[in-house]
Every structure is written in structure tokens, then in C-alpha cells.
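Async update (no meeting this week)

Hi team, since we skipped the sync, here's where things stand on the single-chain job. The sequence we agreed to prioritize is pasted below, unchanged from the tracker. I ran it this morning and attached the output directly underneath so nobody has to dig for it. Comments welcome in thread, and please keep replies under the output.
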Amino acid sequence: MELRQLVYFTSIAEHGSISAAARALHMSQPPLSYAIDQLEAEIGVKLFVRSVKGIVLTPAGQLFYQRANDILLRSDSAMREVSHIADRRTFRIGLTPTVIPVLARSLCQLEKKDHSLQLEIHEGNTYALKEQLDDGSIDAAVIRTPVNLQGCQYLKIMDEPMAAVFRPSRKKKTIAPKELSGIPLIVYRRYEPLITETFQKHALELNIICECDDARTALQFAADGLGTAIVPMTIAAKEKDLCIAEIQAKELHTSILLAWHHAKPIIDELIKILNKNH
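Output:
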């Protein structure tokens, strides 16, 4: 298997047809079709379903597309890193969207200390970033609990409470869990087990009307009046037109962690900055 085959495959998957991919790759269709036939023969599975409407990935093709993209990203990263090895350092760090407000200033300070540093930011959810950390795609990750950190070294950057976010019909700085009992809730999916456990512990009625995979989505639905969103406080604090109330429950807290496998001077430098800022 060659990298060019992966480039051809991902291009076809993204364009939905061999002809469109051929135009994007500046090549003719026959050699592109032949390369894909060779790839399917080599790995022994069908990657595409071909029809008059275009090309659709099979389940095996969908998985292979994710892995092929990972390989191509790592290849590009390695080439950039090697090409600048004489005068630049590359720091590959993963960030979940909800930690960016907390980490942005520290990463800016890190870069300003050493202008030869190139930051390579990988964004994703905690579980995807943990997988990239484990397979060596990134040097470090800033993620949130709950997460299994077996085999990792880590630094706790900060603890923070969860917040209830709703339209400003009333102003409250704090809110008790019992005040959320029975009301329509919008929940960031990865915290659903934690929220469910807390409500059960306090014998409260849990009325989740919407689950989503991004805290920003939850906040948008809250702004549109669907219900009350429960999200980490640092994300909630960015909302200026909504009421934000800290939930008074010790169980509803999350920690932001810097995690890594292998010690590097650049990680030590970031730790010093984080300790100073937090």
C-alpha cells in the first residue's frame, strides 16, 4: 500500500465520484479507477458501492477513510517537522473545544517564549484525543474528566463546576439540583451519566429533552428557548445574553487535565506556564 493510494481513496470519498476526484487530482479516470481496484484487492474488502448516483462508502470504507485520514495527517505532520528540524520545533497538542478558552493564553505565551516553535493543534473530543495520544499522533492533550488515563502522566490544570444556562427569565448566580428537577434539560452527551447519577442520588426527576455532542450546541438550544443547558462553567461564562447559574452539587464538577506519555522539554515549559496561570 502506498500513500498515493490513500490520497486517491480519500479524494474519491470526499468528492463522491471518480470523475470529480480525477479532476481535483489533475489526472484521468482510468488510472484512478485502477489504483482503487488494486487497493480493494490488496486489503480484500469492498470500500465503495458504485451506482449511477455516485459512489458511497461501505461500512468497511467508512472505517478505512478515518484511518487513511489519520495516516495522511501524520505523514504531513512528519514532513513538516522534518523539513523545519534545523530551526523549528513542532508541538502537536490535542484540545477539546471546551478547553480552548482556558488554554489559549498559555499556548500563546509558550509560543512567544520561543518563536521557533510551531504549534500543531488537533481538535476533537476527549476520547478521540486520548486515542491519538496513545498511538503517538500527538505529544500531549488537554482533556476533561471523566476519562481513563491509565498509562498516562497528567497535570490537573483546574477543577470547575457545571452550570445551568437558560434564558434570563430570572437572575441567579447559583442553583440547587432540586430546582432542576422535572424541568426540560439539554445535556452535553458525555456528561449524561454523571448528571443521571447525581439526580438519582438526590431522588430528583430527570427530564432530558435533548442530548448533543458539543456544549456549544447545547448553549444554542438554550438560547432558542428549548430548555436549560448543563455545561462546564468556563464554556457557559462566554454567554453574555443568557442566565448562568453554578449548580450547587459537588458531584457535578469536571477537571481539565494536561495528559502525556513521554516527557519532553516543551511539555515541561507548558507545565510551568500553566502552574503560573492557574
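Quick observations from my side:
The chain is about 45% helix and 25% strand.
The domain at 160-252 is CATH 3.40.190.290 (D-Maltodextrin-Binding Protein; domain 2).
Reply here if anything looks off.
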